[in-house]
Design goal:
- The structure is a single chain.
- With 224 residues, this protein is an alpha/beta fold.
- It has two domains: 145 residues, Rossmann fold (3-Layer(aba) Sandwich), CATH 3.40.50; 68 residues, Orthogonal Bundle (DNA polymerase, domain 1).
- 44% of the residues lie in helices and 12% in strands.
- The strands form two sheets. The protein has a six-stranded parallel sheet with strand order 5-4-1-6-7-8, with helices on one face.
- Helix 8 links the parallel strand 6 and strand 7.
- Helix 1 crosses helix 3 and helix 3 crosses helix 4.
- The longest helix has 16 residues.
- The model has no long low-confidence stretch (mean pLDDT 95).
Protein backbone atom coordinates (compact mmCIF):
# COMPACT_ATOMS: atom_id res chain seq x y z
CA UNK A 1 0.00 0.00 0.00
CA UNK A 2 1.40 3.47 -0.88
CA UNK A 3 2.56 5.68 1.98
CA UNK A 4 -0.12 8.24 2.90
CA UNK A 5 1.40 9.73 6.08
CA UNK A 6 4.58 9.58 8.16
CA UNK A 7 5.14 9.34 11.92
CA UNK A 8 8.48 10.26 13.46
CA UNK A 9 10.13 9.44 16.72
CA UNK A 10 11.70 12.56 18.25
CA UNK A 11 14.84 11.99 20.36
CA UNK A 12 17.53 10.20 18.38
CA UNK A 13 15.61 10.54 15.11
CA UNK A 14 14.86 14.23 14.54
CA UNK A 15 16.92 15.76 17.33
CA UNK A 16 20.06 15.05 19.29
CA UNK A 17 18.88 15.82 22.81
CA UNK A 18 21.04 13.53 24.89
CA UNK A 19 23.39 16.24 26.21
CA UNK A 20 20.51 18.20 27.71
CA UNK A 21 18.94 15.00 29.07
CA UNK A 22 22.27 14.01 30.58
CA UNK A 23 22.74 17.46 32.10
CA UNK A 24 19.34 17.28 33.80
CA UNK A 25 19.93 13.71 34.97
CA UNK A 26 23.34 14.58 36.38
CA UNK A 27 22.04 17.69 38.12
CA UNK A 28 19.35 15.53 39.72
CA UNK A 29 22.01 13.02 40.76
CA UNK A 30 24.16 15.82 42.19
CA UNK A 31 21.17 17.08 44.20
CA UNK A 32 21.03 13.60 45.75
CA UNK A 33 24.76 13.42 46.39
CA UNK A 34 25.59 11.13 43.47
CA UNK A 35 28.44 11.38 40.97
CA UNK A 36 27.73 12.31 37.32
CA UNK A 37 27.27 9.72 34.59
CA UNK A 38 28.89 9.79 31.16
CA UNK A 39 26.70 11.15 28.38
CA UNK A 40 27.01 7.83 26.53
CA UNK A 41 25.67 6.03 29.60
CA UNK A 42 22.65 8.33 29.78
CA UNK A 43 22.09 7.83 26.03
CA UNK A 44 21.84 4.09 26.61
CA UNK A 45 19.03 4.73 29.11
CA UNK A 46 16.92 6.89 26.76
CA UNK A 47 13.83 5.64 24.94
CA UNK A 48 11.21 4.50 27.44
CA UNK A 49 10.06 7.84 28.82
CA UNK A 50 11.12 10.18 31.60
CA UNK A 51 10.25 8.00 34.57
CA UNK A 52 12.26 5.13 33.14
CA UNK A 53 15.19 7.45 32.41
CA UNK A 54 15.11 8.74 35.98
CA UNK A 55 14.99 5.25 37.45
CA UNK A 56 17.89 4.10 35.28
CA UNK A 57 20.07 7.14 35.81
CA UNK A 58 19.37 7.15 39.54
CA UNK A 59 20.44 3.51 39.86
CA UNK A 60 22.91 3.58 36.95
CA UNK A 61 21.26 0.36 35.82
CA UNK A 62 19.46 -0.28 32.53
CA UNK A 63 17.16 -2.77 34.25
CA UNK A 64 15.97 -0.34 36.94
CA UNK A 65 12.25 0.37 36.88
CA UNK A 66 10.28 3.30 38.21
CA UNK A 67 8.24 2.09 41.18
CA UNK A 68 7.47 5.42 42.80
CA UNK A 69 9.76 4.96 45.77
CA UNK A 70 10.45 8.12 47.82
CA UNK A 71 13.96 8.53 46.41
CA UNK A 72 12.70 8.00 42.84
CA UNK A 73 9.97 10.60 43.36
CA UNK A 74 12.57 13.04 44.66
CA UNK A 75 14.84 12.31 41.69
CA UNK A 76 11.90 12.71 39.30
CA UNK A 77 10.98 16.09 40.77
CA UNK A 78 14.55 17.30 40.53
CA UNK A 79 15.02 15.97 36.98
CA UNK A 80 11.75 17.59 35.96
CA UNK A 81 12.82 20.96 37.30
CA UNK A 82 16.26 20.80 35.69
CA UNK A 83 15.09 19.52 32.32
CA UNK A 84 12.17 21.94 32.09
CA UNK A 85 14.66 24.76 32.66
CA UNK A 86 17.09 23.40 30.05
CA UNK A 87 15.06 21.78 27.28
CA UNK A 88 17.09 23.35 24.50
CA UNK A 89 20.49 24.40 25.73
CA UNK A 90 22.43 22.35 23.17
CA UNK A 91 19.64 20.15 21.77
CA UNK A 92 19.60 20.52 18.00
CA UNK A 93 18.46 18.86 14.81
CA UNK A 94 20.39 16.15 13.09
CA UNK A 95 21.66 17.30 9.67
CA UNK A 96 19.03 18.15 7.02
CA UNK A 97 16.04 17.45 9.29
CA UNK A 98 14.37 20.86 9.00
CA UNK A 99 14.55 21.08 5.22
CA UNK A 100 13.50 17.47 4.75
CA UNK A 101 10.51 17.85 7.07
CA UNK A 102 9.40 20.90 5.09
CA UNK A 103 9.67 18.91 1.86
CA UNK A 104 7.82 15.91 3.24
CA UNK A 105 5.05 18.03 4.74
CA UNK A 106 4.24 19.32 1.28
CA UNK A 107 3.37 15.73 0.33
CA UNK A 108 2.15 14.03 3.50
CA UNK A 109 0.48 14.63 6.85
CA UNK A 110 3.16 14.23 9.51
CA UNK A 111 3.00 13.05 13.12
CA UNK A 112 5.28 12.84 16.13
CA UNK A 113 5.10 9.60 18.14
CA UNK A 114 7.46 9.85 21.10
CA UNK A 115 7.75 8.38 24.58
CA UNK A 116 8.79 11.82 25.87
CA UNK A 117 6.03 13.25 28.10
CA UNK A 118 3.84 16.04 26.75
CA UNK A 119 5.19 18.54 29.32
CA UNK A 120 8.55 18.35 27.55
CA UNK A 121 7.48 17.47 24.00
CA UNK A 122 5.16 20.37 23.24
CA UNK A 123 7.39 23.18 24.55
CA UNK A 124 10.44 21.63 22.92
CA UNK A 125 8.75 21.42 19.52
CA UNK A 126 7.80 25.08 19.91
CA UNK A 127 11.37 26.03 20.86
CA UNK A 128 12.67 24.10 17.87
CA UNK A 129 10.26 25.94 15.57
CA UNK A 130 8.86 22.79 13.96
CA UNK A 131 5.53 22.41 15.78
CA UNK A 132 3.68 23.55 12.66
CA UNK A 133 5.03 20.63 10.64
CA UNK A 134 3.04 18.07 12.65
CA UNK A 135 -0.64 17.40 12.19
CA UNK A 136 -0.77 14.94 15.09
CA UNK A 137 1.44 14.69 18.19
CA UNK A 138 1.40 11.64 20.43
CA UNK A 139 3.63 11.94 23.49
CA UNK A 140 4.51 9.31 26.04
CA UNK A 141 1.58 10.19 28.30
CA UNK A 142 -1.00 11.20 25.68
CA UNK A 143 -2.55 7.74 25.72
CA UNK A 144 -2.79 4.86 28.18
CA UNK A 145 0.06 3.07 26.43
CA UNK A 146 3.27 4.21 24.76
CA UNK A 147 5.73 2.55 22.38
CA UNK A 148 6.40 -0.40 22.00
CA UNK A 149 2.60 -0.78 22.13
CA UNK A 150 0.66 -0.32 18.90
CA UNK A 151 -1.75 2.21 20.43
CA UNK A 152 0.18 5.42 19.62
CA UNK A 153 0.51 4.55 15.93
CA UNK A 154 -3.08 3.34 15.69
CA UNK A 155 -4.14 6.66 17.22
CA UNK A 156 -2.34 8.42 14.37
CA UNK A 157 -3.94 6.22 11.71
CA UNK A 158 -7.37 6.97 13.18
CA UNK A 159 -6.62 10.71 13.26
CA UNK A 160 -5.53 10.62 9.61
CA UNK A 161 -8.27 8.14 8.60
CA UNK A 162 -5.81 5.78 6.92
CA UNK A 163 -4.93 2.11 7.14
CA UNK A 164 -1.90 1.19 9.28
CA UNK A 165 -0.08 -0.09 6.20
CA UNK A 166 -0.22 3.44 4.78
CA UNK A 167 1.54 5.03 7.79
CA UNK A 168 5.32 4.97 7.69
CA UNK A 169 7.10 5.03 11.06
CA UNK A 170 10.60 6.52 11.17
CA UNK A 171 12.63 5.85 14.32
CA UNK A 172 15.94 4.87 15.84
CA UNK A 173 15.14 2.24 18.47
CA UNK A 174 13.73 -1.20 19.09
CA UNK A 175 10.63 0.38 20.64
CA UNK A 176 9.91 2.13 17.34
CA UNK A 177 10.22 -1.12 15.41
CA UNK A 178 8.10 -3.11 17.87
CA UNK A 179 5.37 -0.47 17.85
CA UNK A 180 5.32 -0.40 14.05
CA UNK A 181 5.17 -4.17 13.78
CA UNK A 182 2.41 -4.36 16.40
CA UNK A 183 0.37 -1.75 14.54
CA UNK A 184 1.02 -3.16 11.07
CA UNK A 185 2.94 -0.12 9.85
CA UNK A 186 6.08 -0.15 7.68
CA UNK A 187 9.17 1.21 9.40
CA UNK A 188 12.38 2.91 8.36
CA UNK A 189 15.18 3.09 10.92
CA UNK A 190 17.93 5.71 11.17
CA UNK A 191 21.34 4.42 12.20
CA UNK A 192 22.69 7.62 13.81
CA UNK A 193 20.44 7.74 16.90
CA UNK A 194 20.49 6.13 20.33
CA UNK A 195 19.39 2.60 19.42
CA UNK A 196 21.82 -0.31 19.60
CA UNK A 197 22.61 -2.39 16.50
CA UNK A 198 19.58 -1.12 14.59
CA UNK A 199 20.75 -2.77 11.38
CA UNK A 200 20.01 -6.14 12.96
CA UNK A 201 16.43 -5.30 13.94
CA UNK A 202 14.90 -6.09 10.58
CA UNK A 203 13.35 -2.76 9.59
CA UNK A 204 11.94 -2.33 6.09
CA UNK A 205 14.80 0.04 5.33
CA UNK A 206 17.74 1.70 7.06
CA UNK A 207 19.08 5.20 6.38
CA UNK A 208 22.23 6.93 7.57
CA UNK A 209 21.09 10.47 6.70
CA UNK A 210 17.68 12.06 7.16
CA UNK A 211 17.59 13.59 3.69
CA UNK A 212 17.58 10.09 2.19
CA UNK A 213 13.92 9.72 3.21
CA UNK A 214 12.06 11.36 0.27
CA UNK A 215 13.79 9.20 -2.33
CA UNK A 216 13.46 6.11 -0.16
CA UNK A 217 9.72 6.67 0.29
CA UNK A 218 9.32 6.99 -3.46
CA UNK A 219 11.16 3.68 -3.81
CA UNK A 220 8.97 2.01 -1.17
CA UNK A 221 5.85 3.27 -2.92
CA UNK A 222 7.07 1.86 -6.21
CA UNK A 223 7.41 -1.56 -4.55
CA UNK A 224 3.92 -1.48 -3.03
Amino acid sequence: MPISAIAFDLDGTLIDSVHDLAAAANLARADLGLAPLAVATVASYVGDGASSLVARTLADDHHAEYTGSPVQKEAMARFDAHYTAGLKVVTDFYPSVQATLATLHQRYPLAIVTNKPERYTLPLLALLGIHEHFDCIVAGDTLAQKKPAAEPLLHVTAAFNIEPAALLMVGDSKNDLLAARAAGCPIVMVDYGYGDDVAALGADALVSAFDMLPELITHLDARS
